[in-house]
């Protein structure tokens, strides 16, 4: 059969988190609630940063980009999962699956680039406070954001095009709630070795420098904090980094958990649970993490909400 015709009518079947029909209403309500909280929370962060001039700083500029990325990342996966649960239809078209893979990598990598840039921003703020506004000028901030978006587009496009080269035969079931890249590759009846080579090469060329940048920034931050004589200064420095460090730990912890569990326990459901963490739970938690201990953000949110209800 011609490969183009074969993939033109292809459908994948997402098995989801559970096939128990009694659990479907519970799963639908749970994920719908988390999705709405995630979108609303991140949208409030963006609107608060945009409307309050006190938050027009590099830190909140990158935070608004991260919030937008989280909304898109969450929306790439959860709405389709909710439709499949509600309609009891597990099918996703070939084009829909490839599109989901592309945007998964796009916004996933964008999150990692932005978290690295935010780590550098905290490094400059704490280690070079007198030169902060000069070093983190608007031109550099826009350039860092543009580079993050551009590289994410290119990497996602590469991974998506590599999947397009594959052919699929009979095994179309994906034991996941979205078109997870590794599971799609397992369903292919053609050699996917080149995909794995490109993926691990990309991870090495981009992932290792990004992680190294974060570790270097925080090693310098920790060294500077320990040299501070004032307890109040130390507390203030820790508080400005605490939210960002928490988000980084959640992202990298769950991400590593997914791929380590899939490597050592191919049939384990732990990878699927970890995927729920970084695709649904973490984007929902980010607004709370960045606002609960941040007085400026709390004031901006209260001001924005009060203005909204006063209209």
Short note summarizing the structure:
The protein has 311 residues and is an all-alpha fold. It is 78% helix and 3% strand.
Overview of this protein structure:
The structure is a single chain. By secondary structure, this protein is mainly α. It has one domain: Rhodopsin 7-helix transmembrane proteins (Rhopdopsin 7-helix transmembrane proteins, Up-down Bundle). Helix content is 78%, strand content 3%. It contains 11 helices and 3 strands, in the order H-E-H-H-E-H-H-H-E-H-H-H-H-H. The chain has a 3-stranded mixed β-sheet with strand order 2-1-3. Helix 2 packs across helix 11, helix 4 runs antiparallel to helix 9 and helix 6 runs antiparallel to helix 8. It is globular, with a radius of gyration of 21 Å. The N terminus is likely disordered.
């Amino acid at each position: 059969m011609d490969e183009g015709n074969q993939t033109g009518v292809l459908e994948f079947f997402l098995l989801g988190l559970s096939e128990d029909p009694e659990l479907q209403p519970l799963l639908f309500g749970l994920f719908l609630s988390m999705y709405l909280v995630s979108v609303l929370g991140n949208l409030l962060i963006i609107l608060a940063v945009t409307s309050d001039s006190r938050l027009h700083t590099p830190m909140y500029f990158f935070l608004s980009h991260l919030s937008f990325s989280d909304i898109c990342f969450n929306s790439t996966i959860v709405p389709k999962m909710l439709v499949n649960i509600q309609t009891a239809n597990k099918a996703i078209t070939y084009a829909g699956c490839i599109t989901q893979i592309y945007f998964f990598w796009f916004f996933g990598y964008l999150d990692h680039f932005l978290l690295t840039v935010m780590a550098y921003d905290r490094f400059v703020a704490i280690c070079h406070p007198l030169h902060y506004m000069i070093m983190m000028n608007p031109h550099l901030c826009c350039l860092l954001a543009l580079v993050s978006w551009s590289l994410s587009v290119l990497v996602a496009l590469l991974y998506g095009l590599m999947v397009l080269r594959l052919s699929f035969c009979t095994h179309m079931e994906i034991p996941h709630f979205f078109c997870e890249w590794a599971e799609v590759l397992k369903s292919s009846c053609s050699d996917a070795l080149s995909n794995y080579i490109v993926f691990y090469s990309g991870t090495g060329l981009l992932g290792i420098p990004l992680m190294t940048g974060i570790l270097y920034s925080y090693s310098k931050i920790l060294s500077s904090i320990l040299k501070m004589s004032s307890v109040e200064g130390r507390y203030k420095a820790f508080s400005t980094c605490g939210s960002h460090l928490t988000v980084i730990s959640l992202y990298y912890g769950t991400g590593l958990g997914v791929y380590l569990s899939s490597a050592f326990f191919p049939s384990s459901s732990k990878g699927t649970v970890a995927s729920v963490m970084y695709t649904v739970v973490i984007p929902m938690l980010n607004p709370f993490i960045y606002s609960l201990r941040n007085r400026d953000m709390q004031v901006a949110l209260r001001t924005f909400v009060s203005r909204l209800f006063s209209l």
